[in-house]
Amino acid sequence: MEPLETTRKVSGEPSSVGQVSEQRESLVHVRDLRKSYGDFEAVRGIDLDVWRGEAFGFLGPNGAGKSSTMRMIGAVSPTSGGTLRILGLDPATDGPAIRARLGVCPQDDTLDTELTVRENLTIYGRYFGLSRAECRERADELLEFVALTEKAKVKVDELSGGMKRRLTIARSLVSKPDLLLLDEPTTGLDPQARHLLWDKLFRLKQAGVTLIITTHYMDEAEQLCDRLVVMDGGLIAAEGSPSDLIRDYSTREVTELRFGPDVMLADHDALAGKVEDLAQRIEVLPDRLLLYTDDGERAVAAVHERGLQPAAVLVRRSTLEDVFLRLTGRTLVD
Known about the structure:
- Its main location: membrane.
- It is a peripheral membrane protein.
- This protein has 11 helices and 13 strands.
- The longest helix is centred in the middle third of the chain and has 16 residues.
- Helix 5 runs parallel beside helix 6.
- By secondary structure, it is of the alpha/beta class.
- The relative contact order is 0.13.
- The strands form 3 sheets. Strands 5-6-7-3-8-9 form a 6-stranded mixed β-sheet, with helices on both faces. A 4-stranded antiparallel β-sheet has the order 11-12-10-13, covered by helices on one side. A 3-stranded antiparallel β-sheet has the order 2-1-4, with helices on one face.
C-alpha cells in the first residue's frame, strides 16, 4: 500500500519560466520573497513555483538563503517582503492550516528515544487528530514502506542512523501531507543507507507526493529532483532540471589532467596556456587542470600531440557539481 494518497490535479497558474502548454497547480508560489534579520538580508527577492507532484530542490553554499526560504515555506518564519502562498494559503494568516497539511523531515532527527519505533508513529498521529485506529493503520503502512516492520517494538536508541532517518520520514508522512519538506535527508548516512533512502523518496514521488529537498549532495539532487534552483547570496543564480543546468552551465564532458606532485600551481598556469584552445573553459586547481569540452578523448589526444605528459588523465561526464562550483565558486563559506 502506498504511504500517501494524492491526486494529480492539473489546474492553477501556468509556469513563469519557459513556454508551458498546460496549466499546473502551484503548491508553493513565490514572488520577490525576502527575509531580513536586522540589517542582514538573507533572502533578497526570489521568484519560484513548486508544482504538484514534482520533486523540487534547493542547492547552495552555507549562507545562501536556503534554510531561511525553507522556514518561510514551512510557515514557521514570517516573510519580510514579497508574496508567498503555500497550498493557496497565506502563511501570515493561515499558518496553522498550512502546517497541518505539511510533512517535515528536519536535518536532525527529533525522534522520541524513550518510545518504540511504532509508538513514535502512533503518538505523532494523535497530534494531527487521527483516531487511535487510524494511527495504528497508518503506522503499519508506513513501517512496511520504510522497511522497519521488524523493528516496530524496538526503542529508537537501538536503531542505526539510516533506520532513524527512515523512521523520521515515515513520521513526516503520518498525516498524509500535501507537501513534504526534507532538509538534508541523507546527511551523515553511509552509501548503502543513502541509496535505500533515495529509493523510498523516489517511490513517494512516483506516488504523486510533492517533495521539496535541500541537500549538499549533488548526486542526490541529480537522482531525486525534477527541477531545482541554485541559490547564492540570497538570490537564485540558476533554475532548471539537472540536465538543463548541466547543458547551460557546463559542457558534455570534463577532462582532468594531473601532472604530479612536483608540478606547482605556477606551472599549472603555464600548462593551461598551452591547452586553453582545446576546451571551452579551463579551470586551474592546485593539483590538476580541468578542461571543459564536449569531446574529452579528443582533448586528451591533442594534449599528448603537444608533447605534454600528464601523470594521470580522467575523462568524465559533467555533473551538477561542476555547475554548482561554477555558479557559487570554490571558496569555503562558513
